[in-house]
Amino acid sequence: MSKDGATHKVVGETRVRVRYAETDQMGVVYYANYLVWFEVGRSELMRQRGLDYKQMEIEEGCLMAVVEATARYKAPARYDEELIVQTTVTGVRGPVVRFSYCILRAQDSTLLCEGETVHVVVGRDMKRCPMPRKYAALLSAAASHDAL
C-alpha cells in the first residue's frame, strides 16, 4: 500500500519478438506459443520479485507444476512484431499459485491474448508439498498488490 492508502498492482513485464518459426501457414502466431510466452512472463516476474525457479528446484527440492492453463485469443500476432507479456500473481493459497497474463502488441497496445495458469508446488516425487517460506512470502505480497 502506498502512502496515500492506494494499492498498486504488481505487474511483471517482459518483451518478446515473434520469430518466423512461431507462425503457422496463415502467417499468424500458432496458438500454443502463447503458453510458452506465459512461461517467459512468469519466470521474469519471479526474477523481478527476487525469486528464481532454478534455485527453488536446487535449494528447496520442489517444483511448480502447471495443473491448469487457459488462454483467450483476441487478435492475431504476426512475424517480427514485438509483444509485451504482462504477468500478475492473482492468488496464493498454501501450495497453489495462480498467475494471470495479458499479451499486448507493443506498437499499439492491442490486447492479443489473455490467460491464466494454476500451479501446485510438488517435490521431485510429484507429490504436493509446502511452498518454501521465502517464495510464499514474496508471491503472497505480489498477489496482495503489496510491493516489497
List the helices and strands and how they pair.
Blueprint: E1 12-17, H1 33-48, H2 53-60, E2 62-73, E3 82-93, E4 96-105, E5 111-123, H3 133-143
Antiparallel strand pairs: 1-3, 2-5, 3-4, 4-5
What is shown here, in short?
The protein is α+β, with helices and mostly antiparallel strands and 148 residues long. The chain is built from three helices and five strands. It has helices at 33-48, 53-60, 133-143; strands at residues 12-17, 62-73, 82-93, 96-105, 111-123.
| Mean pLDDT reading | 90
C-alpha end-to-end distance: 10 Å
Overall tally of domains = 1
Computed structural class: alpha+beta
Largest sheet: 5 strands, antiparallel
Fraction of residues in β-strands: 35-45%
Could you say what the CATH topology is called? Thiol Ester Dehydrase, Chain A
CATH superfamily: Hotdog Thioesterase
What sort of overall outline do the alpha carbons produce when their principal axes are compared?
elongated
- How many whole angstroms does the radius of gyration measure? 16 Å
Strand order of the largest sheet: 1-3-4-5-2
How many beta-strand runs? 5
CATH architecture: Roll
Instruction: State the helicity in percent bands.
Output: 10-25%
Low-confidence stretches: none
